[in-house]
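Amino Acid Chain and Its Fold in Token Form
===========================================
What this section holds: a protein sequence and its matching fold, both as plain text.
Structure line: whole-number tokens from a learned vocabulary of local backbone shapes, matched to residues.
Purpose: to set a sequence beside its fold so the mapping can be learned.
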Amino acid sequence: MAGPWTLGLLCGLLAAALAEATLSSPAVLSLGPEVIKEQLTQKLEDHNATTILQQLPLLSAVQHRSNRKIPLLRNLVNTVMKSIIWLKVTSASILQMQIQSLPYHQEMMVKIPLNMVAGLNTPLVRTIVEFHMESEAQALVRVERSNSTSRRLVLSECFCSSSNLRIRLLHRLSFVVNALAEKIRNLLVPALPELVQTELCPVIKAAFDDMYTSLLQLMTVPIPLNPGGLVFDPMFLIIEEDTVRFYLEARVLNSKGQVTTWFQSSEMTLTVPKLGNTSSSFVIRQDLVNAVIATLLPSENFVILLDYAHPDVARKLKLSLQKISKQVADRLDNTQIVKMVTRNVPYLHLIPGSSTVAQQIVMDIFATDKKPHPLFTLGIETKSEVQFYNEGDRVMINFKDISSDRIRLMNSDIGVFNTNLLKDAITMILTAELLPNQNSKLRAGICMPIVKALGCETASWSSAQEILILTPDSDF
């Protein structure tokens, strides 16, 4: 029977697993097998993995294997070895690796095919005897819990099995040379996997660790906003089949670098879609997108000399007021002023295939610039379409087609009237002043270095229920 300590430990582990399973982070970076292969292949090149293969000490390995034979066979093999001047790899390449999901939780297998040609020089023949050697290094990648909370991706095992080894002579020569080559081949069958494991596996592990470090650095690069900034940090990660998912927390900073909002786990749901035909995705929760837009578009006051800035809109407003009262409309002159305040920051609402932003505006209409009090004050609820797209590694945001969904009379010096009579004029003012002003602040876009760093020249944004999704336009 399990003791109280064991039961307590199991309960604690189960609670932690359930907590992580229901945890909703503000952003998730999903990397499919194509990204992992591309990144690891590049790191293997950086670590000169093919050079390591070309420098494999085949001759000493074969000699070592011959010394492990029983005495009678050892003498025979030593006689063979005396016929060899040199034995080495003349060319090597690493073929396209494969990533295989495993039935075990939080693990996957990386298979790295190796292609080599080895040359054997012997005085028995004037030409070099060549072997074509095909092998495969296999590495187990898993999620390791480094302490009570954090997890990291590790390459825990690397090995090379003789079952995946293929060695054949490229050219048949004389009977004596072919017999010699067959004996060397028999020694290479056990020796080559050992060489790959001792010489190449440490390089594979170093390349993997380097790749993982680079990915973490990429995720944590501060993203400048104007003003302020955005910083992501990994919370935890999981392996789901052949996909690695990094769950990130986010901090929104002000212009002084101080944290204004810290997004961690939340009761808000975050459904991460499967990658499907895409190689990666970056999913951002709606409340984080709203916080970014709020940083870019803080509350603001507008003072507009309507006749001077937008004479057509001024005429439209006067015509609309005439429907309410001709006497009130006649009080407007060419110094009339419109004051606007964006009462709350824009609120983004994401639904499948569409994005809209709602704002609350307070608008005062003054008959002239001499009047201390407005004719009336309106509370306006607006809605606009939001467009997300990429230019290089920058996310571009644009508002369009603003509408005045609700107009409420807050104060009035001209009595109560039907505010819908002003709807067209109000929409024209918002279109002429609010939209251009906000779009000018959004025009610089938001730098997202992760787009190009993952090999995506272009990427697209799409919306789902309360999430924004970045996916590459073309795969590897």
Remarks:
- Residues 1-23, 70-76 have pLDDT under 50 and may be disordered.
- The two ends are 54 Å apart (CA to CA).
- The domain at 295-446 is CATH 3.15.20.10 (Bactericidal permeability-increasing protein; domain 2).
- The longest strand covers residues 394-412.
